[in-house]
Amino acid sequence: MAFKFRTGRSNRYIWSLTFILVNYAAFMNGDHNQVLYYICMLIPVFPPVGWIMFSGLNFLLYNDHMIFARWNYIYLPTLAPYVHGVIFAFLLRCLEMRYGEAVPGFDPIFRIQQRGRVPQQNKELPAEEPPEVQAERDRVRSAVTSLQQDQDLVIVNGLRKEYEVRTATSIFKKKKKLAVRNLSFGVKKGEVLGLLGPNGAGKSTTLKMISGGVAVTAGEVLLRGGDGAHLCPGALGWCPQQDPLWPHLTVLQHLEALAAIRGMGEEDAAHAISCIGRALDLLKHFKTQVRSLSAGEARKLSFAVSILGEPAVMLWDEPSVSVDPKGQRCMWKVIQASLRSRERAAVLCTQSLEEAAAMCDRVAVLVSGRLRYIGSIEDLKSKFGTSYHLQLKMAEVGQSDSVHTEILKLFPHAARQERTSSLLTYKIPVADALPLSRSFSKLEAAKRNFKLEEYSLSLNTLHQVFVELTRDAEEHDLEVASNGAVEQRRLHP
Ligand SMILES: Nc1ncnc2c1ncn2[C@@H]1O[C@H](COP(=O)(O)OP(=O)(O)OP(=O)(O)O)[C@@H](O)[C@H]1O
C-alpha cells in the first residue's frame, strides 16, 4: 500500500481499515464457504484475527476430539504467519528494489548492515586530462605521500564510485553504473570550492562520499580540522540535496537539537541560533513545524543546520535551490561570514553560475564523473571565453545551407554549434572576428542579401563557456546531420 500511495498518506490508513473490515467479513463467512476461507488464509491479518476469535469463542464449546477435527481452524492459522513472514519479506525486498526505496540493509528494524568493504586504491589510469586537472592530481598525490596536508582540509584522492543497478528486465540482474571515475582535488583552508556540472555528472555522489554517507568504491577521502587534527565525518557541516529534517519538529527544535549534538553550551547555542535565525530571516518561523514550511524556508533551515557550531568543513549540495533571490543573498552573506576564519573550508555544489562566481574561490567542473576543469572562474573565462558567439535568425525556412556557406566565407574558422530550422549558432575565433567594425558590416550585408530576421555577435558569456565545457563527450562526437534539427561540433579553446 505504502508503495502505491506514497504521496497521499491518509489513503494508506483508509485502505488499511478497508482491508481489516474485509478480513472480518471474510472470517464471518469463511465458516460457510471453505474456498473463501482458504483464499483468505493468504491475507496476513486473517489468520491471527481468526485464531483469536476462534479460540475466544469456540474453545470452550468443543472438546479435544472436536478441536482436532477442526484442525484447519487451529493449525493452519498458527502456521500461516510464519509462511507469510517468508513470502512477504521476499515480496517487500522485490518491491523495494523495484521502487528504489530502502532495502533491509538499511532497515531500522532488521538492522542488517552491509558488510563493510575496505576501499581499494583506484587502479584506473587517468584519461588524458587538461593541464590544470593534471596539476591538481599531482598536488594531491604529493600531499598524500609526503603527509604534508597543512594546506588542505579536504583531500579527495583517486575517488571512484560504482553503483549497482538492477536491469529493467530482471530484479536479480545487476549492472554497474560508474558515477565518479578517478577524482582528485583538495580544498584549501579558507577556500570555497564550487562543484559544477550538468545533471548526473556525479556532484552529489562526490559530496556523499566525502560526508561518509555513501561508501567509496576506490580511492580515499582525508578530512582535517582547522587545528590539523583528523576530522570525523560526524563533525562536518552537511547540507544534502534532500532536506534532512523531521516534519513534526519546529525550526527552533531542529536548531537546538543540532546545537546539543555538536556539544554547544546553552548560552553559546542560544546566541548562535538567534544570529543564524536573523541572518537567514528564519526568526519568524522558529515556532513553525517543518511540515508547514515552504520549500525555500525548509532549504534555509537545512543550510542553517549545516553551519551551526562552526564546523571546520562544510559541504553544501545546492543549498539555495527554491530560495528566493533575497534569501540567496542572505545565504551568500552567511557563507562569506563563515569563511572569514581562514581555518575552515567548504565545498559548494551548485547549478547557478552566478552563485559560483559570487561565492567560490575556485571551481571544479565535473562531466560524466570526470574533472574537466579546476581553477578560478577568471581563468575559466580567459581560457575558454576568448571567442565570439554569433547567432543568426532566418526569416525563411530552408535557407540554412546557403547562409552557412556565406558565414564560412566571411569567417573561415567559424564552428557551427547549433542548427534549427530558423536559427544558426557559431563560435568564431577572435582573430576572425576582429576588427569588429568590419565583421558588423559583413554581417549587415549578409542580413540584407539573405533577408535575415536578426543576428547577434557577442563575446562568449560565462554561461556559454560552461555549456561548451560541459557538453558531453558523446555530444561532441555527434555526426554532422545533413537534415537534423540540431547539430553540434567539437570546439577547442
Ligand atoms: N543510488 C544510486 N543508484 C544508482 N545510480 C545512482 C545512484 N545515485 C546516483 N546514481 C547515478 O549516478 C550518476 C551521478 O549522480 P549524482 O546524483 O551524483 O549526479 P549530480 O551531478 O549530483 O546530478 P544533479 O545535478 O542532477 O543533482 C547519475 O547518473 C545517477 O543516475
From TrEMBL:
Keywords attached to this entry: ATP-binding, Membrane, Nucleotide-binding, Transmembrane, Transmembrane helix, Transport
Main localization, broad class: membrane
Location of this chain's protein in the cell: Membrane
Transmembrane segments: 12-29, 35-61, 73-92
Cellular component terms per the entry's GO annotation: membrane
Molecular function as annotated in GO: ABC-type transporter activity; ATP binding; ATP hydrolysis activity; lipid transporter activity
Protein's UniProt keywords contain Ribosomal protein: no
Domain ABC transporter intervals: 165-393
Recorded superkingdom: Eukaryota
Membrane topology: Multi-pass membrane protein
Family membership: Belongs to the ABC transporter superfamily. ABCA family.
UniProt name for this protein: ABC transporter domain-containing protein
Native organism: Ficedula albicollis
